[in-house]
Amino acid sequence: MKQVFAGFRDFISKGNAIELAVGVVIGSAFTGLVNALVEKLIMPLVAAIFGKPNFDSVGNFTINGADFSIGAVITAIVNFLLIALALYFCIVLPFNKLREYQVKHSAKKPEAPEDPRTELDVLKEIQEALQAQNGTTGSGAHAQK
Q1: Which of 29, 31, 117, 132 is most buried (CB neighbours < 10 A)?
Q2: Is 13 inside a domain boundary?
Q3: pLDDT per residue over 56-85, tens digit each?
Q4: 69 and 56 Cβ atoms separated by less than 8 Å
Q5: pLDDT for the residue 115
């Protein structure tokens, strides 16, 4: 039983779980904000144009006692689209622009290419320079002038 709680504690303490919880809370608050915008601003505008406060009564019909409300579905679709648009323009688009900016400005400047010479090449160059300075033509420590 102790292992179950330890595993749960480890799961909760991971960054992703905490970020998810924060996202759910913020999303819930944002949904309330958008719903108020829709109910208090957009739908009254719809009522001013179409004469009805929402689409709930549009296209309603009954078959054998079963009520079908196409207008309620249309209202739900409008609400969903408005929430999706608000989320995209207020959260997703600015976040993507911020990420692009960070990637663009945090990119490392290209470093100068490394010298393709090996240590052996450098030693040979040093040996040749010393031989030229001393006037020797042989190789090795025992070369004669």
Answers
A1: 31
A2: yes
A3: 777 888 999 998 988 888 888 887 887 788
A4: yes
A5: 67
Are 127 and 140 a contacting pair, CB within 8 Å? Answer: no
Task: Please state the φ and ψ torsions of residue 62, each to the nearest 5 degrees.
Answer: -125, 135
CB atoms within 10 A of CB 43: 19
Q: Model confidence over 100-118: pLDDT tens digits?
A: 998 888 876 666 666 677 8
Tell me if 79 sits within 8 A of 33, measured CB to CB.
Answer: no
Look at the chain and report how many structural domains it folds into. Answer: 1
Dist CA 108 CA 129 (whole Å) = 37
Which CATH number fits the domain that encloses residue 83? 1.10.1200.120
Considering the entire predicted model, what is its pTM?
Answer: 0.48
12 touches 18 (CB < 8 A):
yes
For residue 120, which amino acid is it? L
CB count within 10 Å of CB 64 equals: 4
Residue 44 inside a domain? The answer is yes
Quick one: pLDDT at residue 95? 86
Residue 88 lies in a domain: yes
